[in-house]
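User: I'm curious whether this sequence folds into something compact or stays loose and floppy. Could you predict its structure so I can see for myself?
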Amino acid sequence: MKKKMFTVWYVLAFSLIITAHATADDQAKAFMDRGITFYYKGDYVTAIADFTDALKLDPNNTATYINRGASYFHKEDYDRAIADCTQAIKLDPNNAKAYYFRLEYIVLRRYKYIANKITFQGIYFEEI
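Assistant: Here's the prediction. I'll summarize afterward.
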């Protein structure tokens, strides 16, 4: 019940912020903040939608690309996660977080590919 009331309150507050003569930067920040909220609630689809809306208003925000990439990662969409980190790096070549997460997503994508290939070939490892 508490969770549902919070969500209703948050959506109403968000609507007021967006419609109250806010600048594009304010609107982008509101979408970013709401996307972060949905990310931490585990609603990655809605988080991705909000981060995408934020990027339409502020396409040069590296943090938004990194956050959307993290949401794609949790949906196991590694290619899009890597692409978002790559875009963040293009915008800010000194952004260590973007490099770190891109490397992590590349390694995990490769690990998942190898694990699936081994399983599909019928090769299993024994526990030591």
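Summary: The mean pLDDT is 83. DSSP finds six helices and no strands in the chain.
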